Amino acid sequence: MSASTDQARPSLRERKKAQTRAAIQTHALRLFREQGYDATTIEQIIEAANVSETTFFRYFPTKEDVVLQDDFDPLIIGAYQAQPNDLPPVPAVRAAFAALFAHMSDEQQAEQRERVALVLSVPRLRAAMLDQFAKAMQLLADAMAERSGRRPDDFTVRTVAGAVVGAMMAVLAAMADDPDADLASLIDQAIAHLEAGLWL
Fold first, then answer.
1. Listed residue (50, 3, 61) closest to 24, CA to CA
2. Tally of CB atoms within 10 A around 73
3. pTM (2 decimals)?
């Protein structure tokens, strides 16, 4: 086995941490679904997940973070970086989303839709999501800059990254109108529209 393969594979400790974080989120989402977000306390989540208070706060500083934190952004960036170098930025982003959703199980996609619906239904979560969008735009701008040989603070790079994030905001608005809509399909349609040049 090559050294690069060893480095790419998460360690046992990292896998256990990921499992603990996922378990906390799964129990939290169940409680939010059964009791409502506001009625569910951190203490109830800790008890349901069978973890200590210290463990909970190590992974999630706030209750909002239980919903908002995930591996989605890093996974998208990784899928984007894996695209052919000659692929322009927006088609590369579209291909990255398609690749990511193709490897997600039905259960994972359902959980993602549930979290989106929860964010849209709770004002505090919607407000916190705006900060996440800003961070996502910077992550994407960094990746785009690296591929294009430009600086991450290049205005053109930020504009393209911002357009992609804006498309994601449009997807959220569509999900608010129709919670049963297919998330992967909406994202692909939104980015395809960017790719086509934003004609109306």
1. 50
2. 14
3. 0.77
